[in-house]
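Exercise 4. Each item below gives a protein and its sequence. For each, produce the structure-token representation.

Item: Intracellular septation protein (Tardiphaga robiniae).
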Amino acid sequence: MKDVFAKLGQDFFSTIVFLVLYLVTGDVLLATCVAIAGAVAQFVYARVKGQKLDVMTYASLALVVVLGGATLLTKDPRFVLAKPSIGHFAIGAIMLRKGWMLRYLPPIVSETIPEYVTAAGYAWAALMFALGAGVIAVAMTGDMKLWAFYVSVVAIGAKVLAFAIQYVVFRVIISRKLRAAAATSPQMGT
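Answer:
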């Protein structure tokens, strides 16, 4: 479980840095510059350490650099407000790739219930698309406080809740399958 949070933290590091710095300082340009620098440093560190990088890592870096660069060039607050929706849509599109969740799951899950892992991956993609649409709807209001609340509380809360539901559902299904397999296997010594 700790490994899952570490990987998610790596994937969303620059987004977290941006949001925290923006909420603390209110300075879009500073938050963007630090997020870009953090994403590039994280990528370089992983390459130097020889870590295997997957599609999510490259996509995350590209989103931060491209969208962060556009933020710096335009200095348009409306773009900054809509920026997380682009990230959600892009991540949702990546999550449509079958098997993307496998790097986050222990082997017992992917070996015992692979069909549920695939379905959960698509459910995560749908959640990302819904959250992206929500960001656009909130950005259209132009209310910075509402936007900050949505991005920091609603969007993160929805992901935490989805993770918790997925964890419980996977655990229940795996337990049932393992008990059923144990009940149908021949008893030793009888």
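Check: The mean pLDDT is 84.
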